[in-house]
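Let's do one together. I've listed all components of the complex below, 306 residues spread over two lines.
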Amino acid sequence: MKRLVFCILFYLLASSIAQARSTGCKEGNCDNGYGKWVYTDKTTYEGEWVATKKHGQGTETWPNGYIYKGEFKESQWNGIGILFFPDGSTYEGEWANGFMNGEGTFTWSDGKQKKGIWKNGSLQE
Amino acid sequence: MEVSKNRFKTLSEPVKQFGGLVGIIILIFLTFFVLNNIFGEGDELVAKMKIEEERIAEERKLNKLISSLPSGVLVSFDGTDNFKLSDELYEAVCKATKLIPQRAIMGANFLNFRAHEIYTINGNKIDETFVKWDDEKNKCFAGFVVSGNNVGVDETVKVSGEALSFLSTGIDTRVYFIKNF
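Okay, and this is what the predicted structure of the assembly comes out as:
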């Protein structure tokens, strides 16, 4: 019984160490400078950091296929950037507070496009 | 009455025993008949059991199929690095999938700011998720419902769209991309 408890505890410890080693700042400087951060769900950010926040140019890749390339401000998608959706659709244009805000073009995977002023992810008619 | 009694007494022992056995069997049948009428659901229960058996058999078949799929991202569109699902597999995976992870929800929220607001205000809480196969459209639809208080107003928002990609973990499958645009 003691052996079983020991094995379980050892397994939990080993898996948490392995998890901790696979996440966090993997390359470069993730405080101030250029670095790559890996999150527990395998989302990655590679780009510029200022005071431990994503700030400047960078690329955020989600495990389910969303990729944002562009400007970050205070760890949010902010400025000019392009978002690639998993099916190949894209939005290229202005971002604010992590949403499509400003001028931008949405291109569907079949090539259809919608261009205009966006507010919080919606195209303003 | 007296005559019947005398006649019974004149019967041989094996015949008496056989008669007793038949009597007990009839009594048992009658007892069960009465109990079934009082407590039993008869045909309805049998029908329910059949449906349940069919469901279990279908679930086993789907689980076997899921475990045979490669681990990783499964897509229903032309993806370069991912496993492309055939029409048949797409339907089967859709029917076997129940989970929608956080990134898929966050992705769908890009096109629904109200849902995003409620989702974040309420600590990423989801009221309900669903994954359904639409027989008419031959497509898989997935979505979620968020509700909560947003600037003093109780709101409920339902987000749904086509489920176009899934994650196969080897144990189960999860919706990975909801196309709601």
